[in-house]
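Exercise 3.2. Students should predict the tertiary structure of the chain below and write it as structure tokens, then compare their answer with the key that follows.

Predict this chain's 3D structure.
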Amino acid sequence: MIRWMKSKLEMRRRGAPFLAAGLALVFGACGGGEEPPLDPVDPVVVIGIDGVDPLILADLLEAGRLPNFARFADEGSLVRLATFAPTFSPVIWTSIATGQDAAAHGVTDFLDDRDLPFTSNARQVPAIWNLASDAGRTVDCVGWWITWPAERVEGRLVASYAAQAQAKIIWKPTIWEAMPEQTWPPELQQAIKPFVILANEAADLHDRMRGAFPIPGEVDDYTGRIINDLAWTLAADLSVSAITRHLMQTGDSDLTLAYLALPDVAGHRFWRYHAPGDVRYEVPAEELELFGDFVNLSYVEADRQLGQLLAEVPANATVVLLSDHGMHVDPQNIYEPEALASGAHEDAPDGIIGVLGPKAAKLGARLELGQAPLGDVYQVAPLLLHLLEVPVPRHWRAVQKPAIPLERLLDEGWRVEHPLVLGPNPDAAFRPATPSILPMAGSNTTFREAFEALGYLGDDQPRAPSGDGSTKPLGKQPEDDPSNP
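Answer key:
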């Protein structure tokens, strides 16, 4: 800890090339001499929750079921956030982290042209954790999309990897116990081990599932599959949440980022129970009784984990809460009662963004139908750099406009005292992109077997043969569609 803090102070003393270049561009060359020291800033905490829909959120807030989301609506701001189509999670979360579109950052889908999940080395431009580190700000990042293998940062990074996508199972990133290069610094791997819940080994995961959802005692193949998907995602979220809390308890990073995914997976798998009138087939009454509240309960569980994270946030911190998109019925499957996906978002329904803390403007909640989004996902990275008082690259699309609408989420007085500063384009100096890589030999088989061992699939559930994972999905379901992660 002492060594890490010394590194942090050393970075602040010596400044950083990107920050110095930005200051020189804005204020002009100073004729030599040492770079000015980096002023300390209040911490920024970013909590990304995939698939949180504004309308569902508004209904649950009104019902009083989400006390921690409600803090943003009551004490700060909670508004709609525009996204883009096609709305694929790895693309959007990378755009959120880089401030740039897929043509610039290079993450164009779930899998690359060799059918491998995109990995961090394939990203073509720096992300917020790179830019903040280069500017001398310290960073903790946990579970964000396309972060494996873990990059060197001024701080700590716990990478996630959507390895299950290789085996055509579930398209969400997960933290793995034995995966190489999963943390920076490398020794962090051992420190986080007590907080990683392995979906196929955690003795208490079924208890956690039963605590969050009314899981029936017996399930058929279809129900076992969609419950497996939910449990797998819950294990990942519980791991990310616990690791993030541990990092906040053992450090004082300028920027903390964490990614959770449960509402998205619940929306994809359980939408027909949430809104049975949206599909063109009859959903059995007994299934509605069992699963009708599962989508809402995924928000309740996300709210519980949000509350645990907020409890670790310093009083002077600014918390940014966001989702990449909303959710609705899958129009391709409204006549398909056995399709795995009954919810979808490819046509870019609005997500949400909220700000809480001393720097938050008091805009309240603007989530209802008919409310226009305040800004879009490309404006998140400039907002975060502004809060960190790091120059925003002037070529980013969000700063091509006269004003960045998401800046209205910040207190006007603070914005006047701390105007947004533009800096040079750092992309050319970023390390060269290289093709996506595999974490280990035979990973398709490894990850498929881990998924099958989760336990909600029936005893007579067909098991995938060993090999490259290119077989049909489990049970009688149609081929998984990567556009329905």
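Discussion points: The mean pLDDT is 85. The domain at 2-452 is CATH 3.40.720.10 (Alkaline Phosphatase, subunit A).
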